[in-house]
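Usage example:
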Amino acid sequence: MVDQPYSTVLQQREAATMGMFVFLGTEIMLFGGMFAVALGLRLTHPREFVDSSMQLHVWIGAINTAVLLTSSAAVALAVHAVRARQFRATSVLFVIAAVLGVVFLGIKAFEYATEYREGLLLPPVGVQRLFMDLYLVSTGLHALHVTVGAGLLAAVAAFAPQRATLVENTGLFWHLVDAIWVFLYPVLYLAR
Amino acid sequence: MTDVPINKRADPNDIRDRGLSETPEERASYLRAGHTLRSWFLTTDHKRIALLYLVSVTFFFFVGGIAAALIRIDLLTPEGDLLSNEGYNRAFTLHGVIMVWFFLIPSIPNTFGNFLIPLMIGAKDLAFPRLNLLSWYIYVIGGLCTLFVLVAGGVDTGWTFYTPLSSMFAHGQVVMAATAVFIVGFSSILTGLNFIVTIHKLRCPGMTWGRLPLFVWSHYATSLILVLATPVLSITLALIAAERLFGVGVFDPKLGGDPLLYQHLFWFYSHPAVYIMVLPGLGVVSELVTAAARKRVFGYWFVAGSSLAIAAVGFLVWGHHMFVAGQSMYASAVFSFLSLVVAVPSAVKVYNWTATLYKGQIAIDPPFLFAASFIGLFVFGGLTGLVLAMLAVDMHVHDTYFVIAHFHYIMVGGTVSAYFGALHFWWPKMFGRTYPMVWGRIMALLIYLGFNLTFFPQFILGYLGMPRRYHVYPPEWQVWNVLSSTGASILGIAYLLPFVYLLWSLRYGPPASANPWGAAGLEWTVPSPPPKENFVETPVVDYPAYNYPMEMEEGARG
Ligand SMILES: [Cu+2]
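Running the assembly step on the lines above writes:
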């Protein structure tokens, strides 16, 4: 059970969890760069930034926020389940969370399509174009994380729902993906 | 050399027999644990991965060195006769990109850090051995992308990829070069993550934070920067690529974007990256100095804490690269002040090394010579950094050869000296063989002389006003450029020397004992070269770091 450089299971678990937290730190810095760009643009063009933000579909974003928060709740329950050694429940909850992740992606794709039809997604010039570019890059990067996260959740649910540390760390990653959206949503949709 | 005929198999029981091609220690070591290519390319042993890095990093050092040689040959004359303008731009860009991301950043951490951190803290391996191997493969993929850029015509933006040049005007492989740096960044992040967790979780019983070798402390500080700064570079480069490929306009003034925003993001990473490059070198020198003086380090907590202070303050000084870029003068004043502040912990280290050497019984071995040249060149590079941090002076020397000379004193005079110092100090540990001391001393001296001859004239050139990245210059500056190129050829020869005597030592060098320098530290308690599992029994530490016998001073003073 204990792998090469470790002497106890506890030590190995602590190391894995710490590794995940450090990794989450790098993720925060990655999106931090993105948020810094958003702040810079907002400070240079406060009016146009707000005008562009007003055109986004705030309710679609709200629904998506609810979807991700629900999936995070499922992940939190799964972590409780694995600690109580209820591996079936862990598996089911992870699958629910992964499905909600896919639902999020579906709604996001629908939103992009709507914006494209309305001619909103790629306006020809000016700060509005800049705002939409920022919106596309940041939500796209986030969607990439949702895709990876949902894949991980599904894989753990299928193959290793009894490995408590793995379940916890996958859960941590999912919570971070969720938390990033919780910041992206107000910055892009609500800061008006 | 040796009077034993090489083809005669010598007495395998006599470890001192110089004709022996394999010692008992070697037979039991990590070097002989598997002979297949597979056993090297799929290894998870931190020591073997360190050697994989040693080879690949050295390869890129010479690719970057060839680019430097082209630059120095072209600068011999005031006209641009060897390279076209375009070719010259491509030469210095590749020199910068390769030296920064494919040599300096991984050089000491990924070779010596990888090899030594587990040995120094009494661990069997890094916390995530497979991640460590993955990190090397990512490095190699990034390196292949760079070689592709090289073959496909190169880039001409300079290693800094400044917008709007890189995003709107440059032709050449900007996207591919950015991709290469983006990829290699993940290698850095994974290594940093691995080191942090290893140092936290895998210290052997009794190895408290206060007993860690200073090499480990400086790698801990380096890892924090690797993990926190590199992602910002990743997103910045991704934005550049997105701008070139899809017209995303974050840095495009036509859309209301801001080219200067790029400089903020880039230097938010790249100034801390300077400390990624130099902190491991500072750690190496702490080890070399204490081993040469055979004394406990003076002010352990100050040296350890200064590494963390450098890492922290290093995040707050990026604006000193933008004094002439139209930055608010109040911001400039603050950045100028903080840039002076960040010099304090570096100075603390130098004072403590000096105090450690004071009244020590110094052995003038190659590692000490490298450490001494590091200290001298690092102090000079650091002091000229203070000159550049002054707002008024920077107006005069910004983007001139003064800056080039300044950072080469830190990066080449400092880090590369430390790299070779580490190589000479731990070579017997890594390979179980000693090399001829006299050649090590000659190399150290040649590097010191060649280095100063190359880069000191560049301070003068910069002060006279020669801008960086130009290859056509007024004839009155030729003498300084010729001096610099002469020094560079000495430096080039010096860098090639270890290839001869270190490789020679692999087969014909006398076997090294477990502790050839009489140094303190757990890595010297295991055989040279170490066995695959590092420690047969987990060590227990009940003594302080640098447990050298206390100095005789007390008695002598009475
Ligand atoms: Cu700087």
